[in-house]
Amino acid sequence: MVIKKLPHFKIAGFRTSPIFEEKEKKGFSFETLNGRKKIFAHVDLNTINQYDIYKFDLKIFEQIGVSALINALEKSDLVLMDEIGMMEQGAVKFTQAIVRCLNSPNYVLGAFQQRASWFLKILKERTDTKIFFVDELNRDSIPESIIELIGQV
């Protein structure tokens, strides 16, 4: 919703999307805004890494994720990270790329799960970052608040 209201921005980055099989959430895919897509978490994935019911592949973050963020830094003025969760915390190069984006002159628009306390800690230490906690009561007003904030900078 926010991205559609910022047509003058060059936007790059990534988003994650749920994978449904027979109306049940079975995993998640990592999708770059330039078209790369890969399953990073699935109940049936062959890996030792697991969070909740999902097994996940850290290499997706370390390879495709880092590449997407570096590309976003080089070719956009707004980096999209939708979303950061618990599975990413073990991906050291990916985490470093996130911090590199936050330290850049680019705008960064990110969504993260509140339970991803490792990422919230990084954000709370920053003085140049605005955090919106989204709930059912305020979720419709948040996009306008973000657009207004970007317009003031």
SSE layout:
Layout: E1 11-21, E2 24-32, E3 37-42, E4 50-51, E5 54-56, H1 58-75, E6 78-84, H2 92-103, E7 107-112, H3 117-124, H4 142-152
Parallel strand pairs: 1-6, 6-7
Antiparallel strand pairs: 1-2, 2-3, 3-5, 4-5
Helix pairs in contact: 1-2
In a few lines, what is going on in this structure?
This protein has 153 residues and is α/β, with parallel strands linked by helices. It has a single domain (3-152), classed as Rossmann fold (3-Layer(aba) Sandwich), CATH 3.40.50.300.
Number of strands: 7
Strand content: 25-35%
Give the full name of the CATH homologous superfamily.
P-loop containing nucleotide triphosphate hydrolases
Mean pLDDT across every amino acid position: 92
* Strand arrangement across the biggest beta sheet: 4-5-3-2-1-6-7
Largest sheet: 7 strands, mixed
Question: How would you characterize the overall build of this protein?
Answer:
With 153 residues, the protein is α/β, with parallel strands linked by helices. Helix 1 packs parallel to helix 2. The model has no long low-confidence stretch (mean pLDDT 92). The protein contains 4 helices and 7 strands. Helix 2 (92-103) links the parallel strand 6 (78-84) and strand 7 (107-112). The chain has a 7-stranded mixed β-sheet with strand order 4-5-3-2-1-6-7, with helices on one face. The protein has one domain: 3-Layer(aba) Sandwich (Rossmann fold), CATH 3.40.50. The chain is globular, with a radius of gyration of 16 Å. The longest helix has 18 residues, at 58-75.
